[in-house]
């Protein structure tokens, strides 16, 4: 089991000293100097709690392949092991034993971690680790399953919009079905696939998209016609007052663009009002309905 885990780590993990993929594939490249490899690995092993790093198995394999001795690596890792993570877990257990609720302890730990990440996050290092990984890291997939860490990603994405790792993570969050949470994230609008999902979700949740439609078709240059049409589309029903406003605008010497009343929803309402059985229409205004429908259908 341990051997399988080490093989998986060798294949999937990106150690800090891991050779580039091109060098692995191209066997004609000169091999690394064994002494330099051992020295480099020992320098990494001298880091605080390096035994807890994801790339530990990669570096151990490099170290032993270069002729490193087990005694030296054991002593180096042991001497620099301070058990920061384990101490934090122990303190959390003590708090629970002292009567603090588990949820409160969990919130304390998570909030502290979030604050530390927000203070120390380096987008360049994040991109480097992400590109060296070669594939979606397993820890990242696990993170986005929890709302606490998704909210952290959202804050970081707003602060570092150019970070490739964060932008990719936003897409992963959307792929996982949480697009309803990223409607206000500006970086989400920069990815057409993510933006499309967010827009589709908003429409499916019956959000009123009429103002967006009006803004895109340039109707703001004709405020009276825009206001009348928006009012009817928002309520999905026609009324004589707004129809009269549109009629007055489209019979003026300088009418609004014809595309404004070629809105499919508006045309459907007009057709139903004029031709659907059982629908009653004010005869005094019927000619205005007919005029607007004819105007919209003309070339």
Automatic annotation (TrEMBL):
<keyword id="KW-0804">Transcription</keyword>
<protein>
    <recommendedName>
        <fullName>Negative elongation factor D</fullName>
    </recommendedName>
</protein>
<feature type="region of interest" description="Disordered">
    <location>
        <begin position="1"/>
        <end position="35"/>
    </location>
</feature>
<dbReference type="GO" id="GO:0034244">
    <property type="term" value="P:negative regulation of transcription elongation by RNA polymerase II"/>
</dbReference>
<comment type="similarity">
    <text>Belongs to the NELF-D family.</text>
</comment>
<dbReference type="GO" id="GO:0032021">
    <property type="term" value="C:NELF complex"/>
</dbReference>
<keyword id="KW-0678">Repressor</keyword>
<keyword id="KW-0805">Transcription regulation</keyword>
<dbReference type="Pfam" id="PF04858">
    <property type="entry name" value="TH1"/>
</dbReference>
<dbReference type="InterPro" id="IPR006942">
    <property type="entry name" value="TH1"/>
</dbReference>
<dbReference type="GO" id="GO:0003723">
    <property type="term" value="F:RNA binding"/>
</dbReference>
<keyword id="KW-0539">Nucleus</keyword>
């Amino acid at each position: 089991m341990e051997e399988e885990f080490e093989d998986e780590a060798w294949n999937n993990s990106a150690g800090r000293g891991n050779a580039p993929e091109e060098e692995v594939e191209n066997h004609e490249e000169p091999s690394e100097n064994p002494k330099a490899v051992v020295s480099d690995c020992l320098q990494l092993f001298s880091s605080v709690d390096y035994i807890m790093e994801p790339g530990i198995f990669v570096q151990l394999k490099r170290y032993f392949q270069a002729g490193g001795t087990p005694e030296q690596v054991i002593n180096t890792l042991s001497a620099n092991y301070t058990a920061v993570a384990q101490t934090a877990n122990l303190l959390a257990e003590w708090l629970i034993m002292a009567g603090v609720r588990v949820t409160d302890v969990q919130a304390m730990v998570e909030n502290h971690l979030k604050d530390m990440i927000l203070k120390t996050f380096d987008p360049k290092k994040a991109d480097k680790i992400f590109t060296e990984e070669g594939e979606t890291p397993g820890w990242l997939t696990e993170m986005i399953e929890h709302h606490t860490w998704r909210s952290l990603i959202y804050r970081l994405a707003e602060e570092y919009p150019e970070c490739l790792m964060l932008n990719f993570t936003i897409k992963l969050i959307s792929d996982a079905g949480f697009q309803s949470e990223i409607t206000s994230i500006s970086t989400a609008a920069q990815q057409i696939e993510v933006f499309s999902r967010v827009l589709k979700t908003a429409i499916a949740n019956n959000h009123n998209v009429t103002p967006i439609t009006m803004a895109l078709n340039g109707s703001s240059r004709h405020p009276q016609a825009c206001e009348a049409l928006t009012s009817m589309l928002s309520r999905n029903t026609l009324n004589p007052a707004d129809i009269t406003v549109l009629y007055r605008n489209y019979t003026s010497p300088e009418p609004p663009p014809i595309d404004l009343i070629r809105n499919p929803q508006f045309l459907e309402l007009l057709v139903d009002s004029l031709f659907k059985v059982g629908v009653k229409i004010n005869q005094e205004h019927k000619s205005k309905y007919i005029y607007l429908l004819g105007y919209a259908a003309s070339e």
